[in-house]
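User: I'm writing a tutorial on reading structure tokens. Could you give me a worked example: one chain, its sequence, then its tokens, then a sentence or two explaining what the tokens reveal?
Assistant: Sure. Here is the example chain.
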Amino acid sequence: MQKSTTVLTFVLILCSICFSQAQDRTISAKILDSATLKPIPYVTVLLSNKRGVITNEEGNFSIQTTKTSVATDSLFISCIGYKSLAQSLEKFTDSIIYLPAKAIELNAVVLSNKQYTPEEIIKKVKENLDKNYNQDFTKKKLFFRESYRSNLVKTDYKFIKSTIKELSKPFLDSVLESVPKNDYRYTEVLCDLYGNYDSENQKINLIKASELYDKNSELDLTSLEERFNEIIKKNVKPDSYFKIKSGLFGTKVGADEIFDAEVDSTNAAALQKELEDRKKREAERKQNFAKWRKSTMGRTFKNLFFMKDTDLNFIRKSNKYVFNLQEFTYFGDAAVYILTFEPKGGADYKGRLYINSDDFAIIRLDYENVKPIRKFKLLGISLAENVAKGKMIFSKGTNDRYDLRFLEAENGNRVGIRRPLKIIEKNKHVKGRRKQNELSVKIDMAVTGGSKFEIVIFDTENLSSNQFEAFTEKNTVLPVYMPRYNPEFWKGYDIIEPNQAIKEFTVAE
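And here are its predicted structure tokens:
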């Protein structure tokens, strides 16, 4: 018995030495509810209570150790309603972690000298709203993922007339066959974001980025556009223009706007200008990628529930909602009220709030719409924004104010077009009838789509206004294109684990 204990001790020491000599290590696991064995999403996992990640919706996480990590460092795992877990890295070998629930009966706990009603709790939340959340300048190191989808769900049309033989029904059928019915795209960015939650006061420093999508769909559309341009070139007369009519409306388009002018390969000046334009477009693309990502994050932060112009009005306009106290539990050492809310009349959202009973800060919220946020229907064109849901998790910083830790926001819509369409070629220099050619169809099409944004913030460092002004954006990072998920791309970096759909994404050969 003593011999086996000695051997075990030797193995542990050896593992500790090997760990301390390694430059980094990736720790990956799935966190499950110990009773139901279901994955627990959005669990906070901290390394030595300093840096950390959040589990994804499937309960998975990965976290990187550093050169300074040692075997005695610990992982701290916590989630509202569950017992917290702390375990040293040297003992962390399982790929599955079980968390037991930490249920507390509300009527068995003395919350305070006064039993607050749900309305009184929300009133306290509103009174402390401005002082509870850090809206000063900060430097945030964060990982951002956008998952985009588009699905062509209806492609009906009735062919009426075409005086250009190439623009026939078989050609239009081939057009519809060439258009991708489903489009998925994933963009991932690691960056430092300077500023506050106001999009006018934000600067970005890109560190690394990737895009996962099918380039073949772009090639199909490009070849289709080239075919269409050739047909137009062969059949339109000089100085023609097009009249595009849909129902009562018409738009005039010059023939030269349909296709790009070609560059004469014998014209040195033209070629030089084209090369310069390409360099300019490449430089703009680098700047615009960073600009677009910053703009997307800025719009997302604008909808934080405590912002003045947020669409999530269940706190600032709480009179439009009914609140119910569901449970009292703990998040770490903090006592937490759990309230649900639903519309009182025509309001848009329902959800759940997790409120610190000490300072009445909302430390987590889940919400989803109960009806379309916006609807539009006029003259055969319809739009319904029918998905608006998300989550937010906050943690208290060193200044006793809360910083955003994790955000997930998902939106979805359906766009439909059901109306006649005419494309008429006219020429003002032709005597007699100016109308030369015509394509006439009735279309009935619909597209569903949407985006999901995930932001995990690893570190938040306070900045002065002078430090913010002194930082200059110099973004030259472009996303690396990937036709399939590459688990090695983010090796050595902390990110939020991709879900199974991303891991299984691959472009058909």
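What the tokens reveal: The CA atoms of residues 141 and 459 lie 5 Å apart. Confidence is low (pLDDT under 50) at residues 1-23, 106-111, 259-265.
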